[in-house]
């Protein structure tokens, strides 16, 4: 299914050899470069990034810090892959973009001109002007620089407070915990990540946090970070007036598109760089994709801002087709179809997957939940009108992507799905199976 | 325009390492853990005393106090270590530990293990084996057991068997606890423990006791290269009805290999039954991350392992021709070849390098680069088997845990991130890639057919012929 939208656009023969510059070597930039090379064997491709010489897996940052892998193990490809593909890698920061002149100024390496440019500059951690946020020991977690900084900040630290209850917050907590530093998560909502997770799932994650010995303060907000007298963080104070000792303060309250470079150009931006469904920006010959792009939607649909790994890969591949296409003529260029939403995460030892649309806290959506009586295991089926299945949440279990995708795209009803639930199971061999129990319990919960 | 002062890039991410944690004071060990270490230490001390030749040497009491305490102390240590943690993947800090990341301690461990093999193979007198008279030294410490199960005084080979089996059992306990959240690992670990203890140690030793031809019941030609050589064949046929049974067993396993591999993949042997695999999966597990997963290593691997397979085939055929023609074709030459193979492949490669280098090259050096059995199983698995590792849609986020912890050095990620199944000759089906994947992307499966694993897998012969172009798939 998905393959279809990735097929080559109808290519007329390339009239000329163009120089495409890709700014950013994250999953978006890297996917675009590889796809573009497939489509345009003779174009010149340059990929620039200031963070690292080679593309690596950002979600793997934590594993480098806790010693599961070395940095080089997280690279997407062997180093020899890039020269073989004739993709030139440049390690430098672009500090200025002159869009009309099609020119980039690099910090170390002078100027660079391009025929076509892809902005894949990713995002940046949010900061909310908290008092004390510039003290030493206060930091976010986004890239390799943060990893280095965290390593330095850990020296002599015993406690930490992490502000923000998202995915990165819990990763940061696990990282600190592995160094014998006691972290406490400060979460504004009444349950962990409850703006995304329904209550039952959020509670399960809360239990995993407890079991690992990590602190969790719900319904707490940061008021200020207190100087320990040397210019370093020593404690935080919450809005309720509670004081928590912390030599490290992690700020992980979400990310926003990185607009540093386009800020003073004419390129249109809102939350992110605005692009059409071919991922073209308002400027001629400049595209944007991945975390930094905001895709315009027609009518009253909200613009799309997708900031996860798989959408970066998907948009990267698509934008390559758009860049490779010769004209904007209708039909010549592909258009972005986000497809079925899915994602997965791991909270400490607890795995989580989601497929389709599962709204947090019900919000007008009926759903059925099964939970194992003693194990950390749960499954939710969200329903739309007419008992059509709208989505799944699975915790402590693994489900098959293909099967869930098929059921959701075929609009299968609850009965069908419960009858065939076993097909969706993706757990390792010999693990106990609970699908029959799930089906019975879910059927029993219905009037 | 970006203010350059806000930019940080003057660091080399390749060299940085990001974080060997500073040496902090370790928390004090709890009493029960101290006791485990005490038991281990006491065992080592009595062992050294016995090697020196005290009265305990060669007695049941001495054996219990030395080997017994060492095995028990180590098992309890691992038990206690993992029992104190939440169930899940326990790989924190592996790359910061000298013994596990080719640091000084790793080299020491490698030298120690290699040294043991060198002593066993070439300096048995150092270990206390003597041709005329009772054993002394290290060999004597297992003498009572040897007398009991084989009816002979202990030899270096008996000592080796005891050490080998004990290592699998003790580190098997470690695997049990490390993976107590995973039935797959527990069951396959139990399997290698049973096969090693019963099929490869106890029963073969009983054969010696009852004066029957020696054979390990989980050994198959060509791993046990001589099991279908004329000499062994003669031994079997000369041992009556029981000898015939052994012969049928030996040939039966050769025949059963492709059938079982068709249904279950190579793993039925390599990570469930085989003794070498058993040691790799237990004693070797702490070093699995050291297996080189570059394409260069893969290339070397394919050339080496298939060369060894060709060699063992050639030796086997020449021995039989020689036998049938009573030496008219090859003459004394075939005997030389036989010895050459036994020495370089059987001893040096599978033992000294294969196991001795665990702490340097990973725990499957022999299985990857040298084992002709693995080569045969691999060819079946790659082209004609129902086994595959399924990649779960597009869920992979390229983190690299799977490739890092694959003991066979397979770059699992390179397939997973393209949403392709993993169908590789070398995969031993240990299942660790699937366990360490933080996004649940991988699943080992026996499908209902071999034909749906990759494009062209419905025509195994074509795929095989195509692969002989010796190009990467
Ligand atoms: C710790 C962490 C864990 C995550 N875990 C997950 C997860 O488990 N699952 C998931 O789906 N998503 C996860 N994400 C989100 C995911 O990593 C991002 O959505 C994805 O990396 C976005 O890719 P990208 O290529 O668009 O941008 P990025 O990965 O941010 O890459 C942008 C690159 O551009 C470079 N760049 C920017 N500006 C310039 C400039 N001016 N000059 C030169 N170079 C520049 C940057 O250095 C950077 O390397 C995680 C994110 C973080 C931070
Ligand atoms: S691919 Fe996976 S199952 Fe196969 S050997 Fe490697 S880690 Fe084990
Ligand atoms: S461990 Fe899982 S997510 Fe990571 S690279 Fe391998 S398959 Fe992908």
Automatic annotation (TrEMBL), chain A:
The entry's protein name is Assimilatory nitrate reductase electron transfer subunit
What the record says about family reads:
Belongs to the FAD-dependent oxidoreductase family.
Q: Which InterPro entries match?
A: FAD-bd_OxRdtase, FAD/NAD-bd_sf, FAD/NAD-binding_dom
| Domain FAD/NAD(P)-binding: from-to ranges | 19-297
Keywords assigned by UniProt? FAD, Flavoprotein
Give any GO molecular function from the UniProt entry: oxidoreductase activity
Cofactor requirements of the protein: FAD
Source species taxonomy: Bacteria, Pseudomonadati, Planctomycetota, Planctomycetia, Planctomycetia incertae sedis
- Xref: SUPFAM superfamilies: FAD/NAD(P)-binding domain
Protein's UniProt keywords contain Secreted: no
From TrEMBL, chain B:
- Keyword Repeat tagged: no
Q: Where are the transmembrane segments?
A: 35-58, 64-83, 104-123, 157-177, 189-210, 239-264, 303-321, 341-361
Residue intervals of the 4Fe-4S ferredoxin-type domain: 387-415, 418-447
Q: Name one GO cellular component term.
A: plasma membrane
| One Pfam family of this chain | Fer4_9
Top-rank taxon of the source lineage equals Bacteria
Q: Which InterPro entries match?
A: 4Fe4S_Fe-S-bd (IPR017896), 4Fe4S_Fe_S_CS (IPR017900), Electron_Trans/Redox (IPR051684)
Entry keyword set: 4Fe-4S, Electron transport, Iron, Iron-sulfur, Membrane, Metal-binding, Transmembrane, Transmembrane helix, Transport
List the molecular function annotations (GO) for this entry.
4 iron, 4 sulfur cluster binding; metal ion binding
Could you confirm whether the keyword Secreted appears in this record?
Answer: no
Which PROSITE patterns does this entry report, sorted A to Z?
A: 4FE4S_FER_1, 4FE4S_FER_2
Gene3D superfamilies, A to Z = 3.30.70.20
Name the record gives this protein = Electron transport protein YccM
Q: Which gene encodes it?
A: yccM_4
């Amino acid at each position: 299914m998905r393959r279809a939208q990735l097929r080559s656009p109808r290519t007329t023969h390339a009239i000329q050899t163009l120089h495409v510059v890709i700014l950013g070597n994250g999953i978006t930039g890297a996917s675009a470069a590889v796809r573009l090379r497939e489509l345009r064997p003779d174009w010149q491709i340059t990929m620039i990034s200031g963070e690292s010489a080679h593309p690596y897996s950002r979600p793997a940052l934590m594993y480098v810090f806790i010693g599961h892998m070395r940095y080089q193990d997280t690279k997407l490809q062997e180093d020899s892959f890039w020269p073989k593909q004739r993709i030139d890698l440049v390690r430098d920061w672009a500090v200025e973009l002159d869009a009309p002149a099609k020119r980039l100024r690099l910090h170390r390496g002078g100027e660079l001109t391009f025929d076509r440019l892809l902005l894949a500059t990713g995002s940046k951690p949010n900061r909310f002007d908290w008092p004390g946020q510039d003290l030493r020991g206060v930091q976010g977690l986004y890239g390799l620089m943060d990893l280095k900084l965290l390593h330095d900040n850990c020296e002599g630290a015993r406690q930490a407070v992490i502000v923000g209850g998202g995915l990165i917050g819990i990763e940061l907590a696990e990282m600190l915990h592995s160094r014998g530093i006691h972290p406490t998560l400060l979460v504004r909502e009444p349950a962990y990540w409850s703006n995304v997770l329904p209550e039952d799932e959020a509670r399960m994650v809360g239990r995993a946090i407890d079991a690992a010995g990590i602190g969790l303060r719900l319904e707490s907000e940061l008021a200020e970070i207190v100087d320990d007298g040397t210019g370093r963080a020593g404690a935080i104070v919450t809005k309720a007036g509670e004081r928590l000792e912390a030599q490290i303060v992690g700020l992980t309250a979400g990310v926003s598109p990185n607009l540093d470079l386009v800020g003073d150009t004419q390129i249109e931006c809102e939350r992110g760089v605005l692009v059409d469904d071919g991922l073209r920006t308002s400027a001629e010959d400049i595209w944007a994709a991945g975390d930094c792009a905001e895709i315009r939607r027609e009518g009253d649909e909200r613009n799309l801002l997708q900031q996860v790994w798989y959408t970066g890969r998907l948009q990267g591949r698509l934008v390559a087709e758009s860049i490779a296409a010769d004209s904007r003529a209708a039909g010549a260029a592909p258009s972005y179809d986000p497809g079925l939403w899915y994602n997965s995460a791991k909270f400490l030892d607890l795995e989580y997957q989601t497929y389709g649309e599962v709204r947090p806290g019900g919000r007008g959506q009926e759903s059925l939940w099964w939970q194992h009586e003693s194990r950390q295991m749960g499954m939710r089926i969200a329903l739309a009108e007419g008992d059509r299945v709208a989505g799944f949440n699975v915790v402590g279990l693994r489900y098959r992507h293909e099967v869930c995708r098929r059921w959701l795209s075929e609009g299968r009803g609850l009965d069908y799905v419960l009858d065939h639930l076993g097909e969706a199971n993706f757990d390792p061999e010999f693990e106990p199976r609970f699908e029959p129990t799930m089906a019975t319990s879910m059927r029993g919960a219905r009037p | 325009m970006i203010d350059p002062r806000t930019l940080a890039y003057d660091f080399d991410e390749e060299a940085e390492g990001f974080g060997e944690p500073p040496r902090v004071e370790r928390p004090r060990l709890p009493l029960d853990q101290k006791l485990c270490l005490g038991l281990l230490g006491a065992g080592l001390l009595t062992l050294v005393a016995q090697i020196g030749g005290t009265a305990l040497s060669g007695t049941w009491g001495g054996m219990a106090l030395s080997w017994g305490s060492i095995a028990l102390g180590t098992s309890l240590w691992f038990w206690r270590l993992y029992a104190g943690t939440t169930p899940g993947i326990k790989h924190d800090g592996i790359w910061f530990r000298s013994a596990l990341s080719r640091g000084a301690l790793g080299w020491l461990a490698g030298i120690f293990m290699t040294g043991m093999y060198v002593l066993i193979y070439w300096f048995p007198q150092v270990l206390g084996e003597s041709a005329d008279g009772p054993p002394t030294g290290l060999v004597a410490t297992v003498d009572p057991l040897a007398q009991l199960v084989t009816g002979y005084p202990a030899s270096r080979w008996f000592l080796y068997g005891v050490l080998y089996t004990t290592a699998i059992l003790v580190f098997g306990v470690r695997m049990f606890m490390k993976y107590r959240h995973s039935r797959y690992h527990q069951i396959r670990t139990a399997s290698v423990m049973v096969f090693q203890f019963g099929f490869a140690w106890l029963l073969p030793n009983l054969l010696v006791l009852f004066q029957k031809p020696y054979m390990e019941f989980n050994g198959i030609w060509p791993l046990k290269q001589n099991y279908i050589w004329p000499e062994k064949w003669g031994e079997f046929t000369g041992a009556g009805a029981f000898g015939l049974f052994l012969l049928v067993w030996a040939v039966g396993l050769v025949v059963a290999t492709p059938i079982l591999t068709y249904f279950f993949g190579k793993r039925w042997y390599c990570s469930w039954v085989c003794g070498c695999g058993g040691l790799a999966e237990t004693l070797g597990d702490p070093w699995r991350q050291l297996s080189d997963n570059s394409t260069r290593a893969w290339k070397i691997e394919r050339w080496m392992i298939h060369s060894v397979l060709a060699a063992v085939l050639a030796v086997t055929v020449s021995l039989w021709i020689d036998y049938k023609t009573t030496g008219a074709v090859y003459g004394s030459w075939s005997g030389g070849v036989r010895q050459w193979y036994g020495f370089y492949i059987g001893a040096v490669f599978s033992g000294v390098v294969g196991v001795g280098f665990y702490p340097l090259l990973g725990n499957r050096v022999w299985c990857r680069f040298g084992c002709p059995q693995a080569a045969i199983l691999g060819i079946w698995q790659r082209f004609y088997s129902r086994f595959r590792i399924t990649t779960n849609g597009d869920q992979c986020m390229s983190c690299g845990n799977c490739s890092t912890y694959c003991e066979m050095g397979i770059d699992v990620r390179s397939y997973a991130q393209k949403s392709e199944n993993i169908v590789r000759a070398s995969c031993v089906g240990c299942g660790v890639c699937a366990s360490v994947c933080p996004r649940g992307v991988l699943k080992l499966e026996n499908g209902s057919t071999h034909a749906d694993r990759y494009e062209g897998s419905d025509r195994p012969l074509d795929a095989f012929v195509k692969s002989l172009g010796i190009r990467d798939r």
